[in-house]
Design a protein that fits this description.
The protein is of the alpha/beta class. 47% of the residues lie in helices and 13% in strands. It has 5 helices and 4 strands.
Length: 147
């Protein structure tokens, strides 16, 4: 029955392994070699841990640069509206113009028409978001470097 077939198959595999010793050794040693290589690389290049940055007073914000500044956001949910109202009115006396868009495509079209004073915010959920800057905004190289 099944036991005889299994025993015959195992015996056949043992004969093949004994006759092809070189490939059998390679099947065992190559994975061990790559495992050793990965361990060696992780030991040679340990993860960097960065210290916490102390809180510092950055001074007052120059709001003259934020005249007619627009923050567009999507999707227009209740949570997104609350967050954007808090951003607009709690941090600035005059407030910042906030516009809601139904989709990310509409947000991108709006940023094309107002590239110099527009920043987009795409809320993924209540706890995460992505910022969309126009191409003309200069980014600091400190934040663009790979760490």
């Amino acid at each position: 029955g099944v036991w005889r077939q299994t025993k015959a198959l195992l015996f056949k595999n043992c004969l093949i392994k004994c006759r092809t010793k070189k490939s059998s050794v390679q099947e065992v040693l190559f994975p061990l070699f790559f495992l050793f290589w990965l361990i060696l690389m992780s030991v040679m290049h340990p993860h960097r841990k960065y210290d916490a940055v102390a809180n510092a007073n950055l001074g007052t914000l120059d709001t003259s640069m934020l005249v007619n500044f627009v923050i567009g956001y999507t999707p227009p949910t209740r949570m997104a509206r609350e967050i954007m109202n808090k951003v607009a009115f709690d941090n600035f006396e005059d407030g910042i113009i906030t516009e809601e868009y139904l989709s990310e495509e509409e947000l991108q079209e709006a940023s094309a028409f107002k590239p110099s004073n527009f920043v987009g915010v795409v809320f993924n959920d209540a706890m995460s978001y992505q910022l969309r800057f126009p191409d003309s905004v200069a980014m600091s190289s400190i934040y663009m470097e790979s760490r």
